[in-house]
Structure formats: C-alpha cells, structure tokens
Amino acid sequence: MSSVDFESVVSGAEFELRQKHGKLIDGNDSIQGQLDNSLGEWKGAAKSSLADDYPYTDVEAELSKWSLTSPSVEDYKAERIIRSFEKFCRDNNQSFDRGFWEKKLSASTDLANSKALKEAETAHKLLLQQWQKLLNKATSNWELSKLAELRKELMKKLEEWLKLLESLTDSLESLGLDPGIWLDLSSGSLDDRDIEEFRRWAEFLAKDSGARRIAELLGKMRQISSSERIERVKHSITTQVPVVDISSKEEIVGIRLGKDIEHALPSELALLSDPESSILFDLKYLESRLLCFEMQGETLESTEEEIEREQAIEEQDKLGPMILCVDTSGSMHGIPEAIAKAMALFLSSKAKEQNRPCYLINFSTGISTFELTGSEGLGSLMRFLSQSFHGGTDVAPALRHALEVMEKEDYQKSDVLVLSDFIMGRLPSDVLSGIEKQRKADNRFNSLVIGNEFLSDHMDTYFDREWVYNPHTSLIHELVNFRESVLDNNKQVA
Q: For the ranges 117-121, 300-304, 322-326, 378-382, which has the lowest average pLDDT?
C-alpha cells in the first residue's frame, strides 16, 4: 500500500503555481475551479498509476511465501532463499554477503542438531527482516521517483496552460469574455497558429467600433422577455377572534354560589356585622354557599384560514440555442471572412458563457458542421473556424441543415444567424417554407450582411431581422421593413 501523502503533494503543486500565477488564478473563479479539478483528477490518476506500475508485486509474493516456511520444514532449501534474496539485492543495487548467509543457514541441513536448527531459524527470520527492510526502502524510492515524474508532467501541463491563459487573457477580456470557459485542459492544446489567429480576430473586434457594436448586438439576440400567466394561489390569513376567558375578572355577568370572599355580595358580608349572624356566614362559607358575583372577561386568539386568490405570475423565457451559419465561399475571402469568423467566435463564446446550445455551420456550396459542447475548448473551435471552402456561394444547404437541427429537442426556439455577403441567388421555395414553419414554432432567423453590395440587389431572404455591416466605414444598417419597401418598389416599376 502506498505511503505517499497525496494531499501534501497537491497542496505543494498548487502553492508553487500560485507563486508564479497567483494574479491570474485568484482573479478568476472559473480558472480556480478548473485548476482544482485538474489537481483532483491528477491525484486519482497518480494513485492508479502507482498501483498499476508497482514493480515489486512478485517480490512481495515471494517474501510472503518464505515467511510461511522455516528451516524445520523437511523441504526447506537454504540455497533457494539465499538465491532469491541475492537476486533482489542485485536488481536493486544493494550489497549482499553470500558467505554470511550460507554460514548462518547451513544448520538447516542438519535437522537432528536442535541447537544448530534454532540458530538457522533465527538466521531465517533475520534474513526475512533484512529483505523486508530493503523492500520497504526500494518501494519508497520507487514511489518518490515515480511521483516526481508524474508531478513533473502535471506541472509542465499546468504551466503551459496558465502561460497560455496569461498570453490570451487581455484579448479575451477586451471582448468581455471569461478566459476560463474556453481554455481547459481536456479540450486539446492550442498551437501557435491558433493563438495568432485568435489574437488577430480579437484585436479586430476590439479595435473596430462598428464590428464590436454589431457583435454585442447579435450577442443579445432573444433578450429575456417577460410574460404573464394567471394562477390561483392559496394564501394563509391570520385573524384575531375574541373568546371568553373565565380566568379574567373584567366584568360581572351573574351570581353564583361559592366561597370567594372577595366576590361575595354585600348582603353576605353584612352577616359578619352581628355575632349571631356571623355563625350563619361561617356555615355558608364552609358549604361554599355564599352568594358571589360571577366574573369573566374576553381575550383574543389567532386563527389561520386558507383562501384562494387569482395572482399574475411573471414568467421569463430562457435564452434559446444559437445556430450560426458562416459563409466561407470565395466571395468572402479576405476581410469579410475574417469579420464573419471573428463574430462567430465572439457569439460562440457568449453562448458558452450563457450555457446556450450552439451549433456552427460553415458553408460555400457544401457545408461543414461543429456542435459546441461542454467538453469542447477554444482549440477545437479555432480549428473548425479556420476551415474555408473558397468556392461558390449557396446558403440553401446550410439553412436546410439548420432546419433539421431545429427538430432536435436541444434546439427548440433557436436563434439562427447567417453571416455572409449574400452574393448569391434567391432561396429555394422549400427552404422558405421550412423557415416559415419553424418561425411558427418560435424559432427566429436573422442575417448579418458583410459588405454593401446587398443593398443594391436585395434577395428575398425573409429573415426576421437583417443587419448590414460595411467593414470599410464601420457603419451598421438595420433593415426595417426593407423587404416590404423593395416589393413596393418592384410593383411600382411593373
């Protein structure tokens, strides 16, 4: 059984990390939580590794076998135990005096000599004790060496993680994002290209005021809305009810027979004024037949009563799932694609912070998909967003797939956002009918147009909300009733 104090090892590792990265760790609960989880997982893994890789299982079994024998046993062979002990000492770089042990155990061959046999038995016990002592020392040295190796691997991994966090914290915080939600140890490592790409996108959003405004606006899609429902709610009401209190002497309510002198009628007390009549008073007193005033009062008691009332209950809709369709076609190459991916990264991060299911679709003429789950980190997302098709543009396959995703239980009441320059043909009728069907199920469809060509030739998209972002001027236009105005103009031209 391992004698390692794992708690001390973990505490020491955490202390060392805090010495170097205390500002980062203390300032973020998410990072602190992930660090605690990582250290806890390592402790369990280290225990398993020590148990699985323990090299002295066979030696312990052999030592246990020899402890059950003695030179008095007929089949006892001194040479066998000496060879076994010698092999253990040689394998563990321990000195071994073969001549000494042969001399001590030689009496085991002469079972008739009781004195020699007793000496051999003593030597046998001494050998086992020495063997156990050396085994304990070898086990301790092996555990310390193995633990140092495991700890070194852990510290290297945590150091790389914390240094990565420090290098990206400014970029993440400039976007209002929590560094800890993305950069976990279980999600795979980020390479230098991923980091550089992320910094480029983050810097773009941080410096371009228009892009930042539209990113924040899109991040607030489906703001929490309130609704009211009427419920019959039971209420408990406490009331004070007056009840008779016979122990209270507040007022006269009648006459009674008794022996309460303080409440006796004056006519009864008058009997005491004459010695002859006083005897009558005494008799009446003894028989409790004095005429006395009956006194009582009132007190208030609390009683509870349940009643039902109609009450308006305010309900809040939760932020719904998010489905992002990112155009990576040839027409988006360059700044438009970088803008679209930067905004997709920002929105994905917001969805992760808000625990909103998030599904990403890259599209050109084909599609590539990525579902953002709790186990996915920044590296996985960056590698997905780094994909580009650079072919023609067809949003229909992406929207068809988005409509299929909405059928899943986790993606009810979704917000769909298409990020594209919309240099493409009109949407097919089956897609438009699918959009209308899902809109009735409280799904919402939004579009962000990157570039201004869209304004000159508006396609019939039928999105609920549409924004146009011009990367050259950083101006944002929200298209309000744009579809209706274009249709009216077309009628006038006709």
A: 378-382
| Claim to verify: residue 178 and residue 259 sit in the same structural domain | no
**Does some domain include residue 194?**
no
**Encoding tokens for residue 6?**
């794992």
CA distances (Å), origin 71, targets 76, 77, 340: 6, 8, 84
Burial 39-77 (b: 16+ CB within 10 A, else e): beebbeebeeebeeeeebeebeebbeebeeeebeeeebe
Contacts of 412 (CB under 8 A, 6+ apart): 320, 321, 406, 441, 442, 443
Do 358 and 469 belong together in one domain? Answer: yes
Closest by CA to 450, choosing from 484, 490, 415, 417, is 417
Q: What is the DSSP string of 120-150?
A: HHHHHHHHHHHHHHHHHHHHHHHHHHHHHHH
Which pTM was predicted? 0.53
- Final residue of a structural domain among 314, 343, 370: 314
Q: What is the pLDDT of residue 121?
A: 81
Can you give the CATH number for the domain in which 455 is found? 3.40.50.410
190 domain residue, yes or no? no
User: What residues make up the domain containing 257?
Assistant: 232-314
